[in-house]
Specification:
The protein has 2 domains: about 5-30 and about 35-85 and about 95-430, no CATH class; about 465-550, no CATH class. The protein contains 16 helices and 14 strands. The chain has helices at about 35-40, 65-70, 75-80, 155-165, 205-215, 220-225, 265-275, 290-295, 295-300, 340-375, 380-405, 415-430, 430-475, 490-515, 515-525, 535-550; strands spanning about 10-25, 50, 100-105, 110-115, 125-135, 140-155, 185-190, 195-200, 230, 240-245, 255-260, 300, 315-320, 320-330. Strands 1, 2, 3, 4, 5, 6, 7, 8, 9, 10, 11, 12, 13 and 14 form a 14-stranded mixed β-sheet that branches. Helix 10 (about 340-375) packs parallel to helix 12. The longest helix is centred in the C-terminal third of the chain and has 48 residues, at about 430-475. It is elongated. The mean pLDDT is about 85.
């Protein structure tokens, strides 16, 4: 960090971490129960409680900030997030009102986070605003949302905190055995100061042995504690609610910084803050990197940044994985929790950020399902092909529901909300990922359709061959109805004998035709080739007969 960064104090600080995880199918395949329903059945000791619907709660639970959040989005976003209702006059029994696709649970018992960024430093304590789990209908994705707040923190400390905190596991260890890029220690505290869980990124043996045994990285103890009763799927722990990591160990983050003089921040400070998810605080600034050269045009949204004393001086920094809002602490509107930017940050912008990352997480889950289905398919085993067909058709149906229920190009008529949504989605590459998954599903669906058509064509060809050669048997059985064998007045035993012998010969002939239908089809193709002379066709017929019917 530069010396100038030490002069800035973050008067009000907020951080929101949004960690997407993939929920594994419940053990009972025939069950119609949802994951979130299991979370309500853990008894009196369950730390999670489902949040009430604000539209059906008491009037005091619905405030202006909630109303402003609601009207900021387009109607189909409102129905997705909040559900819908019908008036009694227009209610149709066959079209019941739809509930919210979001199911939100809040965790009780965790009041503060105490952390030590580096060994020997003074601990920093942040208040835990809330810890939530967000579930979505039809999609096996959940989000752990952790909201923290603090005040009067040095700017350099905030940048270091944003870079280091919010990592599911260490990516390596330094010479002293401490996790690289991780904070030195993190502790979740209860309201009375009791330590509930402590980070263990320095436990190298734990992470090495877990990865060696399960071929999957483990989870740090303090994050594992927050997700309980969810358990990591590769582990041997018992639990119905199981999850997997979806992608990078670095959790997507949002931050709100109210500083005394945002206009006085140097460009390097803006760069380090905006690129905090990827740029180490102690790393020299890569001045020739395109992310640095084109930082303002790529990652800054400056509609509300005038760089004048009169203001407003609010700047949005968005790199996809990080969404940061910086403004003037002396401007009361900026940190107003009812009508100001802070209220919008807690409501509209958090929801915007969650939707964008929900899109990416869902698409990655679809892609993972298809990879797993292809990996498990063995074309030599008919049961494997049937299982592959069922899995792909199920994924295709789920993708259709995702497309029509959750996939949006526009979420708001407010230009700044829509611009930030588009900017975040663009940096995450959601549109390209959607098209890639769509093409993969289409390719697999076409493969299944072509495979079914091939099998159907083969069956038709064989039935045709059997029909042609069965004509011989039909003609032969017709002899019984002709006078070539005058046995109409013969004893019944003689006639039955003729009938049984003819039936057996015909059945044997048809069985032979079915068994050799492919070879007989090749023989018929040789005879039907009118581009060749009769002599050539007969010679080829002899070769085909010796090869196919030895």
């Amino acid at each position: 960090m530069t010396a100038s960064s030490q002069n800035h104090i973050v008067r009000h600080f907020r951080e929101v971490l949004c960690w997407p995880v993939q929920l594994m199918p419940l053990g009972d395949s025939g069950s119609t129960q949802h994951h979130w329903e299991l979370l309500t059945q853990d008894g009196a000791g369950n730390p999670w409680c489902k949040l009430k619907d604000r539209f059906q709660a008491d009037e005091c639970d619905f405030e202006e900030r909630h109303y402003k959040e609601f009207v900021a989005f387009l109607p189909y976003i409102q129905r997705f997030v909040y559900g819908e209702s019908h008036s009694r006059m227009s209610h149709d029994a066959v079209d019941p009102p739809g509930g919210s696709a979001l199911k939100i649970f809040r965790r009780n018992g965790v009041a503060n986070l105490r952390m030590v960024l580096h060994e020997g430093q003074t601990p920093i304590t942040l208040a835990v605003e809330h810890i939530e789990l967000w579930f979505f209908d039809d999609i096996n994705v959940a989000f752990l949302k952790v909201a923290l707040s603090g005040s009067d923190l040095p700017f350099a400390t905030v940048c270091d905190l944003l870079y280091r905190f919010g990592r599911a596991y260490p990516t390596g260890w330094d010479r002293d055995g401490h996790g690289k890029h991780n904070i030195y220690q993190a502790e979740w505290l209860s309201a009375d100061g009791t330590v509930l869980a402590v980070s263990d990124s320095d436990n190298q043996e734990k992470f090495l042995s877990y990865t060696r045994e399960h071929r999957s990285p483990g989870i740090s103890a303090h994050w594992d504690f927050l997700l309980r009763p969810l358990v990591l799927d590769p582990s041997e722990e018992i639990g119905k609610l199981r999850y997997r990591q979806i992608e990078y160990h670095r959790m997507p983050l949002m931050a709100f910084l109210a500083v005394d003089d945002p206009r006085g921040m140097s460009r390097e400070n803006w760069l380090r803050l905006g690129l905090v998810a990827t740029l180490h605080p102690d790393e020299a600034l890569p001045t020739h990197d395109l992310d640095v050269v084109e930082f303002e045009s790529r990652y800054c949204y400056d509609r509300f940044w005038t760089d004048t004393e009169a203001g407003p001086n609010t700047r949005f920094l968005c790199t996809g994985r990080a969404f940061i809002v910086v403004g003037d602490a002396k401007a009361g509107y900026f940190h107003d929790q009812t009508r100001g930017i802070l209220a919008q940050f807690r409501h509209q912008y958090v929801l915007l950020f969650m939707i964008v990352h929900f899109h990416r997480a869902s698409l990655l889950v679809f892609s993972d399902r298809m990879v797993d289905a292809v990996h498990d398919m063995d074309i030599r085993v008919p049961q494997s092909i049937s299982r592959f067909r069922r899995r792909i058709y199920a994924s295709f149906e789920a993708f259709l529901r995702f497309t029509h229920r959750y996939w949006f190009h526009e979420i708001s008529e407010r230009s700044h909300v829509q611009a930030l949504y588009r900017l975040c989605s663009q940096h995450l590459g959601n549109e390209a990922l959607y098209q890639e998954v769509k093409e993969e599903l289409r390719d697999m669906s076409q493969y299944l359709d072509s495979n079914a058509q091939r099998q159907q064509s083969t069956t038709i060809v064989r039935l045709t061959v059997v029909t042609v050669f069965s004509m011989v048997g039909t003609v032969a059985t017709g002899l019984l109805g002709m006078n070539l064998i005058a046995e109409a007045d013969a004893p019944i035993s003689t006639r039955v004998m003729y009938f049984v012998v003819t039936t057996l010969i015909t059945a044997l002939f048809m069985l032979l035709a079915i068994l050799k239908s492919k070879q007989l089809s090749d023989v018929m193709d040789v005879l039907a080739d009118d581009q060749k002379s009769l002599h050539t066709r007969l010679a080829a017929l002899g070769i085909a007969w010796r090869r196919n019917l030895p």
